[in-house]
Design goal:
Layout: H1 4-10, H2 16-30, H3 36-43, H4 47-54, H5 62-71, H6 76-88, H7 98-105, H8 110-113, H9 120-130, H10 133-140, H11 150-157, H12 161-174, E1 177-180, E2 183-186, H13 200-217, H14 222-226, H15 242-260
Antiparallel strand pairs: 1-2
Length: 286
């Protein structure tokens, strides 16, 4: 889905609530069945909070703004506009420190760096995991004969050179990559993702990886078949077993990483595991 038309409205909009209203109304115009509940789901915010935000009875928090920016696929400039707008329309007695407020509203590259872990860094971390190619680029640096140029990275991952360039800049800023000996190297820093609760960033990432799996299935060549394993099982199960099954899936993934740790590295692979119900529980609304 393209958000190009939605982004174009951000340049002239000032109030962050107006920005969200414009996006919601555009979506509802395209689909009369699109409700505030649907909008809240897409933003990763509860429908009660969205209703209160849109009617002006509740202010957007920086954390909510960060999640919404990721959920709506805002680029750096749109995100900066949105975050600044949230701060500017938040009362001075709200829970935003003076340092954070001044840093966001100030100009220059140093402004975001001053924030530390208070808000914008969290947003940058969301961005780093929101799109699949960020982790792919980190892992691509291990591959033999890796070329750090955006053009080569783009060709290897089948993304645009601009996406490759911006992703590398973001990973460098986060400290997940470093420039060393004329190339890019992964650092010892790790980006921890809390998978115990849903958020827009992980939802974007997992959705994109499912799309990549569907694309892999469309390769009917012998080589394509030999280099993938996409299969599944359907089984009856009690909910009490789900936590243990999830633990076993995670353990298997770690075992795979141990297996390949020493190399050599020739390609970048993605291992997905999906576990979800395909039937409705008794008592659920149809």
């Amino acid at each position: 889905m393209s958000f190009l038309n939605e982004k174009q409205d951000l340049a002239s909009a000032i109030d962050p609530v107006d920005m969200l209203k414009q996006i919601y109304l555009k979506r509802r115009k395209k689909n009369a069945q699109y409700s505030l509940t649907s909008f809240a789901r897409d933003l990763g915010v509860s429908h009660v909070q969205v209703f209160r935000i849109l009617n002006g009875s509740r202010n957007l928090t920086l954390k909510q703004a960060s999640r919404i920016a990721v959920a709506l696929h805002f680029g750096p400039s749109e995100t900066d506009t949105f975050i600044r707008s949230v701060v500017m329309h938040t009362p001075k007695n709200a829970k935003i420190s003076k340092t954070v407020r001044n840093a966001i509203l100030s100009q220059g590259d140093g402004a975001q760096a001053e924030l530390g872990q208070n808000g914008v860094l969290e947003l940058e971390r969301f961005r780093a995991i929101a799109h699949w190619y960020h982790f792919a680029i980190i892992n691509l640096t291990y591959v033999k004969n890796f070329d750090p140029s955006p053009k080569k990275i783009a060709k290897a991952l089948q993304i645009s050179p601009i996406e490759a360039r911006d992703a590398v800049e973001r990973l460098l800023k986060l400290g997940l990559l470093e420039e060393k000996d004329g190339t890019l190297k992964p650092t010892s820093a790790r980006l921890f993702v809390d998978s115990k609760r849903p958020d827009p960033a992980t939802r974007v990432y997992e959705t994109e990886m499912l799309e990549k799996a569907k694309l892999a299935l469309s390769d009917f060549s012998d080589e394509g078949f030999a280099n993938r394993a996409i299969n599944g099982i359907t089984f009856p199960c009690a909910k009490e077993h789900i936590p243990e099954i999830k633990k076993k899936l995670k353990k298997f993934q770690l075992e795979v990483l141990d297996l390949i740790r020493k190399g050599p590295f020739e390609e970048v692979y993605q291992l997905n595991s999906q576990l979800f119900p395909i039937t409705k529980s008794k008592g659920e609304n149809s």
